[in-house]
Specification:
The chain has 144 residues and is an alpha+beta fold. It has 2 domains: 43 residues, no CATH class; 93 residues, no CATH class. The protein is built from 2 helices and 7 strands. A hairpin with a 4-residue loop joins strand 6 and strand 7. The chain is extended. It starts with a strand and ends with a strand. The relative contact order is 0.15. The mean pLDDT is 91. It binds zinc ion. The site of zinc ion has 8 residues, from helix 1.
Length: 144
């Protein structure tokens, strides 16, 4: 656990901010003291959230196209690129079939400016799921 002494950017009070570890205190925030953060959260709770980003089913890509994109992406990860930048990937927890020990394939990748998610089992190659992250209008329950 890492605790940092911070100074509230609103009221100037000195307080501890828990930067890592389990069970952070209520209203843990690197910029605002617990009292100011409480006021902020109370005010924000009165304003409904109108938009968010969520995964929706898409037919933008076939499974073969998605796997080809991931193959190229993984090849880039095998070493440094010409510009010297090391690229990384996001790791997702996979599901495990308790009877066979098989792990599902779950990956997130970016393509043409969109974020996609693919899920499938190697033992069921025709049964797969591809989703795209979109901006969602919560009040009207639709993609925007
Ligand atoms: Zn404060």
């Amino acid at each position: 656990m890492k605790k940092i002494i911070s100074y509230c950017i609103h009221c100037g009070v000195e307080y501890y901010y828990q930067a890592s570890g389990w069970h952070p205190p209520k209203n843990n925030d690197p910029k605002y003291c617990p009292d100011c953060k409480d006021s902020i959260m109370d005010t924000l709770s009165k304003i409904p959230v109108k938009f968010d980003r969520r995964l929706v089913e898409t037919d933008d890509l076939t499974k073969e196209q998605a796997l080809e994109i991931l193959k190229k992406y993984d090849e880039e990860l095998k070493g440094k690129r010409e510009d010297g930048i090391i690229v990384g990937t996001r790791v997702l927890a996979s599901l495990v079939n308790q009877k066979t020990g098989e792990q599902s394939i779950d990956r997130i990748f970016n393509y043409n400016g969109n974020e996609y998610y693919i899920h499938y089992w190697e033992s069921e190659p025709d049964n797969y799921e591809i989703k795209k992250k979109v901006r969602w209008d919560i009040l009207n329950n639709k993609e925007v």
